């Protein structure tokens, strides 16, 4: 029977991954330094959470992951644990320890226990803004040009994965989400669209502090794609960017206001230092199924869930 280890289980994508593992009746082990189940509580009642094994531990400790794999018979690894952009900016040393050293510890533990495949989270932050690429449409062959320490750390992780395939034949499949939205997305540089959805669901106005265009990806879809990545086997160290049609912040604000006409969602004009679009054709050649909920549908579902929790 498969047992999937989810690091960062108390985070947004981690909570959704645990939710889907429970729905699929697959044994799940959650590993996180935090014991706060607030995000998971939004998705699963406590009686359903009893199907999950919760382990509190520090990813930076060399033997922590290895011990969990041994104790719980882990067969698949989904590595999502990381500190986000603001935390890495505030404490670069801790950010490097968690995001880089923690990832090395994941691959070392896989090597020690003969787990031949790892799925892990990279980020669109490995790329820069459109001006770094002279307006060319990006794809998975575009060179990284991170504008944040968080992005630098993610580039390091992609190279760590590459070397573990080269030297130890541990295959890997990393995914680079762009703007993840949905219930539980309450932290990070691109969490503002979700916070706008939450505010609107509660009848409150909200100001999104940036503009431009971005790729919006529903947290439930992202989690399902990561689980598919964890359950695949490969002959390489691949890293693919999740692709959805680029949408402007103005359009996102309008959808929210269409769904909740009594609120006002405003936004700044200045875009974030991220690509305005991405051609993700490689994703569709690797995965037999790519999960992409239409944007209006995902926003409506998110706002419905927020309203139900009020």
What order do the strands of the largest sheet run in, or round the barrel if closed? Answer: 3-2-1-4-5-6-10
**Level-2 CATH architecture:** 3-Layer(aba) Sandwich
Amount of helix: 40-55%
- Major beta-sheet overview: 7 strands, parallel
* Mean pLDDT over the full residue set: 95
Q: Spans of 5+ residues with little confidence (pLDDT < 50)?
A: none
Compute the number of helices: 12
- N-C termini distance: 38 Å
- Please name the fourth-level CATH homologous superfamily: NAD(P)-binding Rossmann-like Domain
Class, according to the CATH hierarchy? Alpha Beta
Shape: globular
Count every beta strand, where a strand is a DSSP E run of 2 or more residues.
12
* Beta-strand fraction estimate: 15-25%
Integer-rounded radius of gyration: 19 Å
| Class derived from helix and strand content | alpha/beta
CATH-assigned fold name: Rossmann fold
User: What letter string, H or E per element, gives the SSE order?
Assistant: EHEHHEHEHHEHEEHEEHEEHEHH
Count of all domains: 1
